[in-house]
Amino acid sequence: MAYQNKKASSKSPVDKLVIEPIQRFINNSTMSGIVLFSSALLAVIISNSPWSDEFHHFWEHEFSIGFDEHVISKSLHHWINDGLMAVFFFVVGLELKREIIAGELRDPKNAVMPIIAAIGGMLVPALLYYFFNTSGDTAKGWGVPMATDIAFALGVLYLLGDKVPLSLKIFLTALAIVDDIGAVLVIAFFYTSDINMISLATGGVVFVILVLSNILGVRNTLYYGVMGIAGLWLAFLMSGVHATIAAVIAAMTIPANVKISKKEYLAGMKNLINVYRDENTTDEPTVTQRELHIIEDIRGFSKKALTPLQRLEHRMHPLVAFIIMPIFALSNAGVTFTGNFWEQLANPVFMGIFVGLLLGKVLGVFGFMSVLLKLKLVKMPKGMNNLHLLGAGFLAAIGFTMSLFISELAFENKEYIEQAKMGVLFASVIASFAGYYLIRLANKKEERAALSE
Description:
Shape: globular
CATH superfamily of the largest domain: Na+/H+ antiporter like domain
Number of domains: 2
């Protein structure tokens, strides 16, 4: 019996060599940012290699779904941007709802600073872009430098380790979340095509059904997934309003309440564990039928103690961080540097986005907050100093995923899209290093101040 227990509890080679290393990799806060950056770098390298034409052509292959005459046919590139990125926006929607209900945006007092910083960080970049592009098709790109890539920004922050003040992490997270709300609204209102009212009305009906399902107590995540994709997402895709908006709306309908309280959960689990402990075990390597039912009851009971929203967010985050976003970066970040490289950098689209992100975000975030701090309308968060705030302004200038996505919506001209990508990539890389070293310098300043006291 002791041998059986020891054997059952021992780790297999697959656990030690495959499963556990993968779990450590996924749970590492910095890895998603590294994978994302590596995918973008790979796309740039291939785009400037002898395989450039084949690489770009690969994303233009047509892929169709449907039956009879009801067929949706789009390029692989479009399926990634309209389909896979809808999953990304769904997770963004889940995070937004959680933050509004029980996170940093729940208390208006805590939310004032990041909200004002985010507004400044959206308005100033858009105005600077418009300074370089006042008319014509290029003027449509004003939304590109408004966005902040939350995964990349936090990835750089976590590279600095535990010395980073918790208040800075909270500030930057809340700022990026408000920024995401702004980006979603910009896409919804300014980057949509001609609207098909019948399809939009169909999506509205599905949305009402999802809301009623939440009110009536439906908690099955598969049900919300099927209704969200087959109903809401498809209706928005056909309506002309960008389909990613449907993903955010669907996320807002996911239940965010537990079915049993913590007290009920602890009492129930204690009872189930006692029943399982008292069961007569056998020498067989498998559990008894009775034990199997008890374990299923434990699993079902634990499910009731979690909100469907948090279950979905927890399960889908690795999928988005390590599969969807890298695929998006690989298919969208490929920029080909031609012989007239310096001419590419001097064009108004590149300049508007580069200056808008790198200067506009810093002026918007750091400038707006400095004025409010000077007027004593807000207080500097505990553990932070002006260098931390300046560093946060640079990290907010990492547009990347959102900025690349909006550039695909803003421009039809491939040359403008290439120029926009270059602006986003150059600004994001410089902002990453600047933000990292400024916050590192700010941490040392705080350490010296603590030692002198």
